């Protein structure tokens, strides 16, 4: 029997020479959803001469991420481009046996029991942030949440607590994340302003200095505090060939970058959504007040606040922190009756799949009720994947779920942030989905019980 001929699905023609590069650069969010609306299950887009396949169905997500993950690698990993230029050999960027071996080494640090032990640190730091706020003042909630989540991640995973260093790291990460590496698969043809390039390089140096100093100080003290850094250094002692200083650096960088970026964006967008949906906010506040009655939330309180979990899940559906991911095929593969050649880059977009009308019914509505136990069971696997799926699912997912719920419940007991009137909220879709100009919010005290 003859094999299916190698083909690619239909897609937009694009412009001569550059193809759809400008769509990727200037309007990726709208462009991605338009592709699904116009072409259906799959579409092929060209960036220059490079074909990029888009897959838009939950079964496609399962095919790539859970059923055949070994045939697909992250495209930047093959030629040291994209995120690998910044994160190096961290868990987000390595593949294959190397990824599996390194993930096993660090997995104990993210075991549920270990993560649960961080709860009191999370709520204590949230209380300290609240204590620095003043009723009626306007704050950039994105910056406030970045400082808070950076402080939490550096303390819980690396036993470091320095507000000054946290601020420096925050500025450095802003500079690096806001200007992706020039040599990425999609952005290799995009020219960034020289000042932006310089800021990114300076930010990278600041982050590298912090991490290598951290490694040096811990090694000199020869102390084992049971955190991630101690675990990495112990692994290096016992298996020096499997864990170099550079790899330790890259793991730390990955955990700090991904650990705070996901949480800060989740909280910023959730406060924004709550300010735009007062009926949801009222129901959430009523649940928090009923369960906590002014107490600081604990780990044991969370199962009693299902609507809080629904709000977070719906926020991740509405504004997924990681809004797309890419894979490159090692070998030819067949999908939907079409044979796709090896080397093809495929984009899987949470931004699109979390918004499919045939899956969600009313995806344009912010409705946490869709996550109650009866409704959540009807969501097909692959339709919702804010942390990815399969063997590469985010190792810090449990950490992020705990942190966002505890911080949201703690803050809302003291303040109900409201979006500043006429605030200009714009998406910045880079590695994550950030508010481009921040999130200016007025801090209104929560000193009354609000009925549902």
Automatic annotation (TrEMBL):
<keyword id="KW-0560">Oxidoreductase</keyword>
<feature type="binding site" description="axial binding residue">
    <location>
        <position position="394"/>
    </location>
    <ligand>
        <name>heme</name>
    </ligand>
</feature>
<dbReference type="InterPro" id="IPR002401">
    <property type="entry name" value="Cyt_P450_E_grp-I"/>
</dbReference>
<dbReference type="GO" id="GO:0004497">
    <property type="term" value="F:monooxygenase activity"/>
</dbReference>
<dbReference type="Pfam" id="PF00067">
    <property type="entry name" value="p450"/>
</dbReference>
<keyword id="KW-0349">Heme</keyword>
<dbReference type="GO" id="GO:0016705">
    <property type="term" value="F:oxidoreductase activity, acting on paired donors, with incorporation or reduction of molecular oxygen"/>
</dbReference>
<dbReference type="InterPro" id="IPR017972">
    <property type="entry name" value="Cyt_P450_CS"/>
</dbReference>
<keyword id="KW-0408">Iron</keyword>
<dbReference type="GO" id="GO:0005506">
    <property type="term" value="F:iron ion binding"/>
</dbReference>
<keyword id="KW-0479">Metal-binding</keyword>
<protein>
    <submittedName>
        <fullName>Cytochrome P450</fullName>
    </submittedName>
</protein>
<dbReference type="GO" id="GO:0020037">
    <property type="term" value="F:heme binding"/>
</dbReference>
<dbReference type="InterPro" id="IPR050196">
    <property type="entry name" value="Cytochrome_P450_Monoox"/>
</dbReference>
<dbReference type="InterPro" id="IPR001128">
    <property type="entry name" value="Cyt_P450"/>
</dbReference>
<dbReference type="InterPro" id="IPR036396">
    <property type="entry name" value="Cyt_P450_sf"/>
</dbReference>
<comment type="similarity">
    <text>Belongs to the cytochrome P450 family.</text>
</comment>
<keyword id="KW-0503">Monooxygenase</keyword>
